[in-house]
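Known limitations

Files may contain more than one protein. Parsers should not assume a single record per file. Below, a two-record file is shown to illustrate correct handling: read the sequence, read the token line, then continue until end of file.
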Amino acid sequence: MKYEFQSGFASQIKNMLEHREVMGYSVLWHRQMLANFDRFCYEKHTGESILTKEIAFAWCNDAEGSKGANKACAIRGLARYILAGGNEAYVMPTAFFPQQKAKLPYIMNDNEIKSFFEAANRYPGNSINPLLGCIVPVIFRLQYACGMRPQEVRRLRCIDFNYNDNTIYIVEGKHNKDRCIPVNQNIMNMCKEYNQIAEILIPHREYFFQSPRGGFYTAAWHENIFRKCWGMSENGARHGYCTPYILRHNYATQTLMRWIEEGKNLDAMIPYLSAYMGHEKFSATYYYIHLLPERLARMDFTGLDGIIPEVIDYEED
């Protein structure tokens, strides 16, 4: 049964969750954490509707529920949303959040990449969504071939594709930066063939990968489909859980490795890769050198002071 929020923060919590869902982000974790916060406030801070420092700390220090760091993260997100709406709220400082080094993403070998896409090819459609069997292999191949962020490939519109010059326009990527990227002819042919099928099943659609509800697919949907294909490929049995972001990471490292094999100067080529992937800083692109095989990562271009910083939250790039 779906939890009904009932504290003085109920409407703000529901509005925040709806906002995240509309923006295509997963809400499962936030819904669970904020349901616990709502119960806490309903029982111990009845009638309170302003998120004060006292309430925030009382919630994080409460003996029941999940760990304090998770609580602090959830309540900080709610507070920032409340502030953005012009209302008063205490935002916990980032100093309260211990920084943890992110686990390095897994880089697939050729056989694993092949197995994954063969699994995507086998993903079935259904009566509710007959286009699904066509969407799955295309959305993952497109993301991998272009190194897109998951949210970028999910939100592509039909008008973003230019089949005359083989380019895709990515609107409002991270940091609200638009960019236009050239795409391999074979990939554009794949997209064109998919588009012809989709137009028959969903005439005049807005989004390239449009859900049965009419909008773009959510992050939760994307991750769930990826997880199923990952399991079907049997890669998961060898390497455990991964997310769609692995495709972006693999695009970057495969590109760098190809340039090395071709004898190209990485220092000269990095700016091109950075612009293509929509990185705000070159350092985010240089990070991928960490993921190359050890013999390549020890090459001279990695020895420059400060050129490869420690990246904590790599999945945001």
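...continuing to the second record:
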Amino acid sequence: MRAQFRASKDYWEFAERIHEAAKHGDGASQYYLGLALNTCDFLYRYYFLAQESGSPARLRTLDEAQQLTATQAGSAYSSDDVRDIQSRCQRIMSTTPPPFGVASDWMEAAIKSAYPLAQANAAMNSVLVAKNSPDPGRSRAARNEALALVVDALRSKDAEVILALASPVVYFAGDEPGAGLKQHWTWVMAAYLREPDNASQAEWTKEHCRFDSQCHPDDRIIDIIRRGAGNDFDEIERRARELNRKIDAGNFEEPDIRTGR
């Protein structure tokens, strides 16, 4: 399913193949259908739908959409990326009513199906609520929910899931200076050690380098870890191996998320 999603040049065709399985409760189909729809709703809408005050929305041409990447400082997407977005999303976004449902509904279904990558995304959303809610009770509940989702997702022992959890677990690293950064790179390293340079890590590297001016065209994920970890590289590798040992043994618990060990 992951390989099909990454290789797809037309999300309509991809969605059509997995829609029935998603409706019948397959967590992977629900997640990747939600991911395809969300990608189109966010990126295609941003680049191709022009909304000017007092005027109805109009569809930009490919050339106009590509010009956005040239005229906006710090744009994370290239003109080739914009062409790919059009190829993948144009048919879905030009069809009314939405033919395959709503992204958020499929993501919620995937969480209920306990699909690990959906749980990892939900953990990040819960962390954001915990960080930003002015209500202490709601913040505490969101924090506990995020912890439970992380532990549940880790039962998959999947390298891509561990990589996806590298961002939400930073919230639990504590107040020690640099603890959050070590936590982040420990989990990224753990994913790398489990499956060096797999497709998910290549995708992660590409997304990371959209916003990291220090990246080089031939960077691999280990190059980014080494640069981010700096003098703590050896310690982070040791912690990552210990993290993987606990995951493999099936005795990873909530306190391990808090301590990062």
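Parsers that stop after the first record will miss the second one. For reference, the second record is described as follows. The CA atoms of residues 1 and 28 lie 7 Å apart.
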